[in-house]
Automatic annotation (TrEMBL):
EC identifiers of the protein: 4.1.1.33
Pfam families on file: MDD_C, MVD-like_N
Catalyses which reaction(s): (R)-5-diphosphomevalonate + ATP = isopentenyl diphosphate + ADP + phosphate + CO2
Superkingdom, taxonomy of origin: Eukaryota
Coiled coil: none
Function description: Performs the first committed step in the biosynthesis of isoprene-containing compounds such as sterols and terpenoids.
Annotated GO biological process: isopentenyl diphosphate biosynthetic process, mevalonate pathway; sterol biosynthetic process
Domain Diphosphomevalonate decarboxylase-like N-terminal, first and last residues per copy: 18-191
Protein name: Diphosphomevalonate decarboxylase
Principal localisation: other
Chain ranges of the Mvd1 C-terminal domain: 205-402
Subcellular location: Peroxisome
Species this protein is from: Tripterygium wilfordii
């Protein structure tokens, strides 16, 4: 290890990893421990400048145990999922040497050395925006860099998968596919990149974070109940998804927005139909979610070709993918017409992320929202003020990166404790 005799060194790596939203959904495991799914899934990666996890990992001979801080609070690493990931990463660690700092760590040393990990999500963990996907992907990516793991992103994705299924797709930018695999040990259940973020850079993503009073069923228990009770889920996994995956891959390769929209909306709706087909039924969407679907469906039908796709995960939030900036601006006008902010919220905190879409929509202040006309395709001019907490405007984004700027490290480089 360190050859200066004092063993005071602390070695750190900081990484940033995006979240992702499935457009062909993962719902149902065939192995709960290894996290192996019953069907393939496809996702779009969201721009990490708006939604991401930053994680700093550190190693030092002075650390007495593995410790982790999430969003400034210390959390336990004793859970099975963190332990599986730590074991898998440690077993792939290789020799490391930093001649300048006089640090040498052999493959065997990694087994004994303890780690400090600090992680921060730049969006509320409770907003239901797949924070565990970005979080576990960042955990694996940062540790792999620290421990000099030589495996490629797909191999790392199989490790991230064991922490949180959908985390495997967050190791890639653009669009990614999680291949369900056949092997019992899960070694072929990996994610691959379909296209990078530059391939379809017209797309704009608008997320409505919907207010909800209800405590949602966790995805883990929801999936388990669907696997045990829903016949529709079996049909979906065997007959529907394999065809949809092929069609979706084609739609993405050809930037065919009409097919992309048809497949994305149909798959989200089927996933929620499976939830209703579960005994007892699970309701993730609420009235606001249903109103957003109606608004988008009516608008798409009134146009020559679809302008926006929608998809909902295990919660009420709507993720909408607009074909280009013009469609995104028109979408925002419609959403703000129906869901104006409460009087105590300012426009800057009601629409976050890429605010330039607001300018395209001609909205400079809250008065412009109140003056929006009823969308021409809608007769119902009723408003639902305050039913959306806030909107996030973003786009498809890149995969994980190492951040070399030490000022962004979440751990003190001398003590290895949170800054
Ligand atoms: N779960 C939610 N966010 C996380 C993070 N940033 N790291 C690890 N687990 C998480």
């Amino acid at each position: 290890m360190g050859e200066n005799g004092f063993e005071k060194w602390v070695l750190t790596v900081t990484a940033q990893t995006p979240t992702n939203i499935a457009v062909i959904k993962y719902w149902g495991k065939r192995d709960e421990t290894l996290i192996l799914p019953i069907n393939d899934s496809i996702s779009v990666t969201l721009d990490p400048s708006h939604l991401c996890t930053t994680t700093t990992v550190a190693v030092s001979p002075s650390f007495e145990q593995d410790r982790m801080w999430l969003n400034d609070k210390e959390i336990s690493l004793s859970g099975g999922r963190y332990q599986s990931v730590l074991r898998e990463i440690r077993s792939r660690a290789t020799d490391f040497e930093d001649k300048e700092k006089n640090i040498k760590i052999s493959k065997k040393d990694w087994e004994k050395l303890h780690l400090h990990i600090a992680s921060y999500n730049n969006f509320p963990t409770a907003a239901g925006l797949a924070s565990s996907a970005a979080g576990l992907a960042c955990f694996v990516f940062a540790l792999a860099k620290l421990m000099n793991v030589k495996e490629d992103e797909s191999k790392l994705s199989a490790i991230a998968r064991q922490g949180s299924g959908s985390a495997c797709r967050s190791l890639f930018g653009g669009f990614a596919k999680w291949i369900m695999g056949k092997d019992e040990d899960g070694s072929d259940s990996v994610a691959v990149q379909l296209v990078d973020e530059k391939h379809w850079d017209d797309l704009v993503i608008v997320i409505a974070v919907v207010c909800s009073r209800q405590k949602e069923t966790s995805s883990t228990s929801g999936m388990r109940e669907s696997v045990e009770t829903s016949l529709l889920l079996q049909h979906r996994a065997k007959e529907v998804v394999p065809k949809r995956i092929k069609q979706m891959e084609e739609a993405i390769a050809n930037r065919d927005f009409a097919s992309f929209t048809q497949l994305t909306c149909a798959d989200s709706n089927q996933f929620h139909a499976v939830c209703l087909d579960t005994c007892p039924p699970i309701f993730y969407m609420n009235d606001t979610s249903h109103r957003i679907i109606s608004c988008v469906e009516k608008w798409n039908r009134s146009e020559e070709s679809p302008q926006v796709a929608y998809t909902f995960d295990a919660g009420p939030n709507a993720v909408m993918i607009a074909r280009d900036r013009k469609a995104a601006a028109q979408l925002l006008q419609r959403l703000l017409f129906y869901f104006p902010p409460n009087s105590d919220i300012d426009l800057n905190s009601y629409i976050i992320g890429d605010k330039s879409i607001l300018q395209d929509a001609g909205i400079q202040g809250k008065n412009d929202i109140e003056a929006l006309p009823t969308p021409p395709e809608m007769k119902d001019a009723q408003k639902y003020r305050g039913d959306v907490s806030y909107f996030i405007c973003t786009r498809p984004g890149r995969g994980p990166v190492v951040i070399s700027d030490v000022s962004q490290s979440l751990l003190n480089p001398e003590t290895g404790l949170p800054k």
